[in-house]
Every structure is written in C-alpha cells, then in structure tokens.
Amino acid sequence: MKAKLPDNDSNLALLEDFVDVEIVVTDLDGTLIDGTDSIKDNIRKKIKYLQNSYHVSFSVATGRTYIGALPVMKDLNLKDGIPVALYNGGVIMGYGTDKVFSKQVIQPYIVDELFEYLINSESSLYVYTFEISEMPFVTEEKNYTQEKVYGMGYKGKKYDSNGMPIIWVNSSRQIPERIVAILIEERQIDLPLKEAVMSYLDKNDMVEATNSGNGYIEIKGKGFNKGSIFQIFKGLKKYEEKKTLAIGDNNNDIDLFEKADISVAVVNSSKAAIDAADYICKYEKGTGFLQMLRVMASAKRFC
After folding, report:
1. pLDDT tens digit string along 143-171?
2. C-alpha to C-alpha distance for 247 and 33, rounded to whole angstroms
3. I need a labelling partner for 302 at 20 to 30 A (CA). Which of 71, 94, 177, 266 fits?
4. 10: left (phi > 0), else alpha (psi -120 to 50), else beta?
5. What is the sign, positive or negative, of the torsion defined by CA atoms of 215, 221, 223, 226?
C-alpha cells in the first residue's frame, strides 16, 4: 500500500525520512500553483522559513517555458544559478543566468511531418524555440532567454498558455531559431488521428512524447527529461551530496520521481504518478504541496 505523507498526528519516527532533505524540486501545474490566496501565502512563508532556517534549496521542473514559469519561480524565491528544468527537461538552465546545462533540439523536418497529419483537422501545432541572449533583459528579474512560439494549422489563438504571442507560419522553413518543444492540441483530433500521430512519435528515435494532463500532446527531443535535473545537481559541487525530494502530479513527473531520493505525489495525481511515488499527500494541488512543506519543517524541528 502506498505510504501516506505524515501529518501532525503521526509518530515522529515517520518524519525521519525528511530530516536531511536539502533540495526540493517541484512540478508547477496541478502541483503547486493551484490553490487559494491563503494557501499560496502560507507556501511562500514556509518556503522562506525552510530556506532561511535550514538552507533548503528549491527548484522547478515544468513543461512550461521560462517566461511562463518565471512568476512562480520568483514567488518561490529561487536563488540565481540554481538548475531549473523547462519544456519537460528539454532545457535545463541556471535560473536568472545565461548558463544552459542542457538543451535538446528537435529537427525541423519533424515539425513538417507532424503538420502533415494535422493539415486537414481543426487542431493546431505549436513550436517553441529557445535561445540565450548575451545581455539580460526584461524588468525586475534578470532574464537572458529568447523564447518564441510559432503556430501551424487552425488559427484559433493569439497567445499560448504562457501568455506568449503566437507567430503563425506554414512551414518550419519560416522558423529560424532552434526548436526545443512541440505541442499538439489533443482535444481537436479524433482517436484514429491521435493514434497515427502517436505511432509516428513512437517510431521516431529523435523525439519523445510526454503527458501532463493539460490537453496537449507534448513533444521534446529525446535525451534529458525532468529527472535529469538531479544529474545536473549531482554534477555541481555545491549540491552533489545533498538529499533530494521531488513532488508532482502526472505522468511526465515519473522520471523526476525515479531520480529523486524521496518522491511525493499530491492526491490529485494520475494513477501512474501515484504508483511511482514514495508518498502520497492527503490533499490536492497547492494544499498538498503545503502539507509536504509542513512535514519537512516538523521533521527538521523535532527529529
């Protein structure tokens, strides 16, 4: 039976697994950012307490772009230079710096071949590019990233889910930058077409598809995944000996769970994610994340 995350009524011995956790890597959508303002405020306070009192480092592993994840990363008070995984691990970079630890590139022909499947449907294909600028830009936070999203197919949107403007094109030849991720609107394709697309992806040894339950088929270059962020941590002297914890909610977090010393699934997680996790929260989304923070704080205070 899956172990439940300890709570205030649990025996202190059950907290011991969390005493020496020094790195926490969290998924965002479905795990952290969904919750009331009160929950979010308590999360901020508990994170600052763990950072200041016990030097716990926090990071993220997300399917989002850097721009899409930036407001939450700022809220988490991430430290400049700490590795963060974007595009489901397609890019791993140092937060607030121009350091890129890994970038998995997708060949342009794959975009065109996928578009051929969708050309007669009402689905759209979104192509994400990622480059690093020599100089930081934006406003309050340093940001060296240059990210764009190109759309192909049914022109139903002006902006993507990260708030980025969509540049509509008809071919990969109109995309000059290096491609790091592709999204296909899953709800707008029928089952036979979805099966054909998935069969193509399964046979292509240069890409892999992931699922975070957001209504898209998510495609990235084969190689690094969300869990690879721990490989980056272990390669940095500052973090190499530190105990790690991962928390998430969906199938694309399984690689993250497998590489962490401790893995925690919020209760709204997919069955596959729950099966892969060491512990399951009593609560869902942000409330479950807050429960995990309270467990860590209690373990460090009392054990």
Report:
1. 788 999 999 987 778 999 889 999 999 99
2. 13
3. 266
4. beta
5. negative
